[in-house]
Amino acid sequence: MGDLGVGIVGAAGRMGRMLVAEVARTPGLVVVAASEAPGSPALGQDAGTLAGLDALGVAVTADASALVERSDVVLDFTVPAASERLAALIAARGTAWVVGTTGLSPAQEAAIAAAAKKAAVVRAANFSLGVNLLLGLVERAARALDPAWDIEIVEMHHRHKVDAPSGTALALGHAAAKGRDVKLDAVAERGRDGVTGARKGGAIGFAALRGGDVAGEHTVVFAAEGERVELGHKATTRAIFARGAVRAALWTKGRAPGLYAMTDVLGL
Ligand code: NAD
Questions:
Q1: 118, 157, 158, 218: which is the annotated catalytic residue?
Q2: pLDDT greater than 90 at residue 177
Q3: pTM for the whole structure
């Protein structure tokens, strides 16, 4: 069987460049298309050169439709509006899709779920092995510790990140809520400021720090009278997300339509 053709959306972004490099070095995968936002200075440039490699002979275009048509699998770490538009193209072609964009509205997430009825879609707020392991540990800890243990989630990311709390922090919140058999939306406290009153029993709190070049740090704090348990993960390079996304891309080969998580890919 031939190589899987990979299309990379947002190929000039921080993750996009990492993805181009990771796909280029992975046997069984080949970069066949790359796109960027209309008006991007990267249009017309070679995707390989942008990623710091030798030229791959793949020019960056603004034509997402042609990219989906040419690809066996599409890698998408962009912005919510771009992922939402891509959902319709994916659904129409049935092309496999690995989507890591965060900060989507419920309606935009629903567009991804709708595309997954027609195509194999791997959706994760975080593609690293460590964070996907952490999700399971947090759910277990939340189930084991009674609600007298306050749960707080602290995250830090680089200064360019546009959404808060991070998609990973929210995924950790969902895991903790699942462990307690509650819905995160019913108990989340996002962003405290001023006279907020005492902490509500059973709340799951979030705090977001931004600065420098931090690739991603998350700590889930379980705090009780007299003791505290902290479960955390530190990413020191974005390469872990690109590696996970590429692993997911390979995993989609021959896969039936459906909405899959990174835990499915990793068999966790
Ligand atoms: P970035 O701003 O560096 O890159 C995003 C790129 O998308 C930009 O180059 C932008 O021009 C491009 N883009 C915007 N609209 C487009 C369109 N219509 N068509 C094609 N390209 C378009 O951001 P980043 O740090 O690379 O992160 C991108 C996204 O991935 C964010 O939502 C971030 O939170 C998420 N992310 C997810 C994971 C994960 O593991 N799931 C890891 C890291 C980052």
A1: 157
A2: yes
A3: 0.91
Q: Which atom of ligand 1 is nearest to the CA of 126?
A: 40
Measured from the CB, is residue 99 less than 6 Å from ligand 1?
no
pLDDT digits (tens, 9 = 90+) for 235-268: 999 999 999 999 999 999 999 999 999 999 998 8
- In short, whether 242's Cβ falls inside 6 Å of ligand 1 is no
The C-alpha angle 96, 100, 106, rounded to 5 degrees, equals 95
Residues contacting residue 232 through CB under 8 Å, at least 6 positions apart: 134, 217, 218, 219, 220
Residue 57, both tokens: 């002979």
Identify the residue whose C-alpha is closest to ligand 1 atom 11: 37
Is 9 in contact with 19 (CB distance < 8 Å)?
Answer: no
Q: Which two tokens stand for residue 114?
A: 């709708």
List, for residues 19-33, the tens digit of each pLDDT value.
999 999 999 999 999
Q: Following DSSP, what letter does each residue of 77-134 receive, concatenated?
A: -S-HHHHHHHHHHHHHHT-EEEE------HHHHHHHHHHTTTSEEEE-S---HHHHHH
Task: At 64, list the tokens.
Answer: 């997402």
